[in-house]
Specification:
This protein is an alpha+beta fold and 405 residues long. Helix content is 47%, strand content 11%.
């Protein structure tokens, strides 16, 4: 039995199928149909061969859209198809062209769900800060000239590294958009990344690598200030901060890797500590030297929660800014927490410890070093070099034998 012309009366009387969906095709306007689902939803569609394939375009739901409105939309689409225009691609492009930078960022977060929380926080910091005036702009309107101009402004007003980082984040968002948003034929709806213009103009700011370390003659002065910080400042968390800073120097860990160390990842029987979440996403097990073991056992006396270096506010020791300032003021030495990691690596190299062992101790990837890929990581092999590095710092810092008893 053929379907009569689709009218309001006809659509109103259509029953819902028990399962799935049923199509009722209009005999007058070819390709025009109404779809009814088991959930009693009714919507108008247009079926037409486009670019050699039969495509189905949803025109709207009934009764939000009337039969007459749906029929008119179907006729408009058929007119576009007849003149060689793909209405699906046209609609996709229109939708994407209206997306703002903030819209793309929301999709980025939903898709890139395996990134570390700090990465999302850093990205959002830029979007709410130096790029806040672009948040509500159509993403497609952010062009090459705008990018170059903003990059130059940031270099002049803030710092070269900050300017570069902001643009790297924007470039990451564009690379995501290039593959995330495609038309019906698989072509990117954001084919051009405007940040590439900075590369083309050789405009990236030079970022001199920081080389600061604790020099040998500074080590006893710095450690004396550590002891003062631990026992004499009176600040609530300075006794934790002092042990944390020394632990960074002796372990070579990155600040967040050490700050988030938990007691369940400390094994006093094996004399190891385990870092599951690292910058390069490779879990790390390190042996304790005698002094690292002493520091950890000392902290165990004051255990109040899961984190070894705990803070009452943040749970773990996330931002010891005040303690750093007091340590600098007392020692007269300008040193960052990452400088302590560089000092560890420099000391290891000066002791003629093999580069493979140093890379494993600080969890650096071997990169293109093919031979390094065959070296099996074994924390027992690292125990001797770890102890040698500790012995060096014990001597240079003049750490007393009973400082952690």
């Amino acid at each position: 039995m053929s379907t009569p012309k689709i009218t309001k009366q006809f659509v109103d009387k259509l029953p819902s199928p028990e399962t799935g969906q049923v199509f009722y095709r209009d005999p007058v306007l070819k390709g025009f149909a109404v779809r009814v689902t088991a959930g009693s939803s009714k919507s108008f569609i247009l079926e037409k061969r486009i670019d050699g394939k039969v495509k189905r375009i949803t025109l709207g739901r009934y009764p939000e859209i009337t039969v007459e409105q749906a029929r008119k939309k179907a006729q408009e689409f058929l007119g576009e198809i007849a003149t060689g225009t793909n209405p699906i691609t046209k609609r996709q492009r229109h939708k994407v062209q209206s997306m703002t930078l903030w819209d793309v960022w929301q999709d980025y977060k939903a898709v890139k769900c395996d990134l570390k929380p700090r990465t999302y926080t850093q990205y959002e910091y830029y979007f709410n800060g130096e790029l806040s005036d672009w948040k509500t702009k159509p993403f497609a309107s952010i062009n090459r000239d705008m990018v170059v101009k903003r990059h130059n402004q940031l270099k002049e007003r803030l710092s070269p590294s900050f300017a570069n980082n902001v643009m790297r984040v924007l470039s990451a968002l564009h690379r995501f958009a290039q593959v995330q948003y495609e038309d019906d034929s698989g072509n990117s709806l954001f084919p051009a990344n405007p940040v590439v213009r900075i590369t083309q103009l050789k405009g990236w700011a030079k970022e001199p690598r920081r080389q600061t370390i604790l020099k040998q003659h500074q080590l006893p002065i710095w450690y004396a200030a550590i002891k003062h910080l631990k026992f004499n400042t009176g600040a609530a968390n300075d006794h934790v901060a002092a042990d944390y800073f020394l632990f960074l120097l002796l372990s070579g860990l990155r600040r967040n890797e050490a700050a988030t160390l938990t007691w369940n990842n400390v094994d006093f029987q094996e004399k190891t500590f385990y870092i599951p979440d690292t910058k390069n996403n490779t879990a790390l097990t390190l042996p304790m030297s005698d002094l690292i073991e002493a520091i950890l056992k000392y902290r165990l006396r004051f255990k109040t929660q899961d984190y070894v270096f705990s803070s009452r506010k943040a749970g773990y020791f996330a931002n010891p800014k005040g303690a750093i300032e007091r340590l600098r003021a007392d020692s007269g030495i300008e040193v960052t927490m990452h400088d302590l990691r560089r000092t560890f690596i420099t000391a290891a190299e000066s002791l003629d410890i093999s580069m493979f062992a140093i890379k494993q101790l600080v969890n650096h990837k071997s990169g293109s070093d093919v031979t390094g890929g065959y070296v099996i990581k074994n924390f027992e092999r690292l125990r001797e070099p770890m102890q040698r590095i500790t012995d060096y710092f014990k001597t240079q810092c003049q750490i007393g034998a009973n400082d952690f008893e």
